[in-house]
Design a protein that fits this description.
- The protein is built from 24 helices and 25 strands.
- By secondary structure, the protein is α/β, with parallel strands linked by helices.
- The strands form 5 sheets. It has a 9-stranded mixed β-sheet with strand order 1-4-5-3-2-6-8-9-7, with helices on both faces. A 6-stranded parallel β-sheet has the order 18-19-17-16-20-21.
- Helix 12 packs across helix 17 and helix 20 packs parallel to helix 21.
- It is globular.
- The termini are far apart.
């Protein structure tokens, strides 16, 4: 083979420190079973297809794209991984150079012999690929070297042909050279020697692990990966990955995980616009590498969709491209679960309201009958979570179930069963558009809901019952801290659904799906509802692409104690708002006190009560200024403590309290305590929050307590649903028009009909 060093490195380069702990080496020969394990990959080959490296006009390199790839490879190399690149691009780079030289030469000759007027008639002859490769190799390597130098990384060029793998001595030499380069922290950049390589031969030898011809960079990357005992091969092309039919066809679906033996179920399209391989060649090479012990991902390197960093996304285990695995999961994929839920959900929506109510009542009965089994599973989760030390105390508190909680759940579900009889198919509006042309607006399910919740397993039956009542399909993704509780609650839910044959309508996602991956299923999921910490909600809102998110990111709730407040009411409301369940999103986080109360007995009694309840107090800036020895000053007035802590701040008036709430609150729940009705009404009117209360605890901001039966969460959004979201918030509408052959032309100037648009009464209980 032709082996040349294109860079020189010093001892300091070789010994540079890594930026992160090294991935743990693993025995070669066993591929990674799941995407999440790709983080452990230490030795990685990145194969860059011609379509990735070259511009759209096929003359020259896509420099911006190449710079991003180099940055990602350098990042992984500096983490302590061993990176190898198999690259195309020499032919395109050489074609650009040769075209330039030919045009320049022609222009000089024609200028000398024919004058400037004939320059427009110049044409470039067809360029032979081997000549282009010979002209482009040095320039391509110089570009790589210049880019990697920006990250203090050395590179080396290696050109190979098929003979370098079939000749035992050359194969050993190549292997030794590559290992030595990796040992010295050098990134080998490998390419087929296209200047001398013979024409491609058929794929007849892509069988078994001992023989594979080097006919393109796909086969080269696969052979190299097995030869070097590589952990991961990332093959970048100009398609998202492998599809079950040619990309662009109506029913084509991207295959997330591809297993050996599945190739009979797919059909291949045409090859890419450049290069000599196609998807079929990539799949055969990938399966060959997989059989040899290397995990493979085929992905799009021309238009990365997620963070713009396709290589690092793949190594981090994100759902990018097609992952080749030898291990089939025991159950359905999340995409299959979603399809199952959607199909069964349509049947659920078509049931009579009484039938959906029967399912909910059955679930309520099962929560009572199976109480001991549920609490036993919950106890196991609590013990594991406590011993692990990985979870905060507020999160563990939310994880806990009790007999009283289960009883309250069952009561709420029975209330919901009654309410569900007047949900799906309810007529909201009737209009007589014209003679014999009647319009109705009716309620319908949203479709497929994805509810992601952490801790709080009592959320599962609540949300399930609401989905049943509203006729929606449901995907549930619970936290890793409550697997046993979630599993038994989901089993009971499916048992209840089975009485009317719709057990698949509610699915529990128990695979290793990352939340970010679920949030990208925009063609399968219609609404995402997060239930958990503000960090979880913010992460989901950022990750959701094309799917609306219903929820609130924080619960910074206020109680304002006015100058005309009752002492008893103030103490009771503040105590309940903060101490009843401090981990809840509707717990008080900031207590606003009118300035006139600072020297009054009511203030001392509130402080004494909070201290007796062991509430840690943080002083707002203004409150701190009144005190000689103050509690710790608050770091932020927008803090959601989720524990027995709160902030106290002083205001001069009700209006100042409103302004403070609008500036620092989260539009969740805010309360005024006062005996002055006019002041209270002004507060209720002016505060722009989902829930605004007078002389009552923030803890009433709950679907069950407000008579909704249950809730999927509390929304601070202003579109679709706001506040505790119960049954109504999970319905949308559609318009139904009944006519007798009416056309728009009938209502034109030349037509015979006129619009009436008369509102018609809606009979009580009217259903479509």
């Amino acid at each position: 083979g032709i082996i040349s060093r294109q860079s020189i490195c010093t001892k300091d380069d070789v010994a540079r420190p890594v930026l992160r702990d090294l991935p743990v080496p693993r025995p070669h020969g066993k591929c990674f079973a799941h995407r999440s394990e790709l983080k452990q990959a230490k030795r990685i080959v990145v194969k860059l297809g011609s379509a990735v490296v070259t511009r759209g006009d096929e003359c020259g390199l896509a420099l911006g794209r190449l710079a991003s790839i180099v940055e990602q490879v350098a990042m992984l190399q500096n983490q302590g991984r061993e990176m190898l690149i198999v690259t195309s691009g020499a032919v395109a780079f050489g074609k650009q150079r040769l075209r330039h030289e030919i045009l320049l030469s022609q222009s000089v000759r024609q200028a000398l012999h024919s004058g400037q007027s004939q320059l427009k008639e110049m044409s470039v002859p067809v360029l032979e690929a081997r000549a282009c490769a010979a002209a482009g190799q040095s320039g391509l390597m110089a570009l790589y070297e210049a880019m990697f130098t920006q990250y203090s990384i050395c590179t080396a060029q290696i050109l190979v042909t098929n003979l370098d793998f079939h000749d035992e001595q050359k194969r050993r030499n190549l292997n030794s050279t590559l290992h030595e380069l990796l040992r010295m922290n050098i990134v080998p950049i490998i390419n087929t020697n296209d200047a001398v390589v013979p024409p491609p031969v058929p794929n007849s030898d892509l069988q078994g692990v001992n023989v594979i011809s080097i006919k393109d960079n796909d086969s080269l990357a696969a052979r190299l990966a097995v030869e070097m005992k590589v952990d991961l091969l990332i093959a970048l092309s100009d398609v998202e990955g492998l599809y079950d039919s040619p990309p662009g066809t109506d029913d084509a679906k991207l295959i997330d995980i591809f297993y050996p033996g599945d190739q009979q179920s797919i059909t291949y399209g045409t090859k890419s616009r450049v290069g000599i391989g196609g998807m079929e060649a990539k799949v055969k090479a990938a399966l060959w590498a997989l059989q040899g012990g290397t995990s493979v991902v085929i992905a799009n390197g021309t238009y990365p969709k997620l963070t713009g960093h396709v290589i690092t996304d793949i190594v981090e285990g994100k759902k990018v491209g097609t992952f080749f695995s030898e291990v089939k999961p025991a159950g359905p994929t999340v995409e299959q679960q979603t399809e199952m839920a959607r199909h069964a959900g349509r049947t659920l929506a078509s049931l009579d309201p009484d039938q959906r109510g029967e399912i909910i009542c059955c679930l309520a009965e099962l929560l009572t009958e199976k109480k001991d089994e549920i609490l036993s599973a919950n106890k196991r989760d609590m013990e594991i979570a406590t011993v692990s030390g990985s979870f905060s105390q507020p999160l563990i508190n939310r994880l806990s179930l009790s007999s009283s909680k289960l009883n309250s759940l069952a009561i709420g579900l029975r209330q919901l069963a009654v309410a569900s009889r007047d949900s799906v198919g309810r007529v909201l509006r009737r209009t007589r558009v014209a003679n014999n042309l009647e319009l109705e607006q009716i309620t319908v399910p949203i479709g497929v809901l994805l509810v992601i919740f952490e801790s709080r397993p009592d959320c599962l039956p609540q949300v399930s019952a609401l989905a049943i009542a509203s006729g929606n399909a449901l995907l549930l993704k619970g936290g890793k801290e409550a697997p046993h509780t979630n599993r038994i609650l989901h089993q009971l839910t499916q048992e209840a659904l089975s009485i009317h044959g719709v057990s698949d309508a509610i699915q529990l996602v128990s695979t290793r799906e990352e939340v970010e991956d679920l949030c990208r299923l925009d063609k399968l999921i219609d609404l995402i509802i997060p239930r958990g910490s503000s960090e979880l909600v913010r992460n989901i809102q950022r990750a959701a692409k094309g799917i609306p998110v219903l929820g609130h990111s924080e619960g910074v709730c206020h109680v304002y104690v006015d100058s005309e407040a009752s002492i008893d009411k103030a103490i009771n409301v503040v105590r309940d708002s903060k101490c009843d369940y401090p981990a809840a999103c509707n717990a008080m986080e900031t207590l606003l006190v009118h300035r006139d109360l600072l020297r009054a007995p009511i203030f001392d009694q509130i402080i004494d009560m909070l201290r007796s309840e062991q509430v840690k107090i943080h002083a707002g800036p203004r409150f701190a200024s009144y005190l000689t020895f103050s509690p710790s000053e608050v770091k932020s007035l927008r803090t959601e403590y989720g524990d027995l802590e709160c902030c106290i701040e002083v205001v001069d008036s009700m209006q100042e309290a409103v302004d403070h709430i609008h500036k620092y609150g989260s539009a969740h729940t805010d309360v005024i305590v006062t005996e002055n009705e006019d002041t209270a009404e002004q507060f209720l009117q002016q505060v722009d929050s989902a829930c605004v209360f007078w002389n009552s605890s923030t803890r009433f901001a709950d679907g069950y307590r407000l008579g909704l039966g249950a809730e999927v969460g509390i929304s601070t959004a202003r579109i679709h649903a706001r506040g505790p979201v119960g049954l109504e918030g999970l319905l949308t509408t559609k318009w139904v028009l009944r006519g007798e052959g009416h056309t728009v032309a009938d209502f034109s100037e030349q037509g015979s009909m006129t619009y009436l648009h008369e509102n018609r009464p809606v009979p009580q209980g009217r259903k479509i």
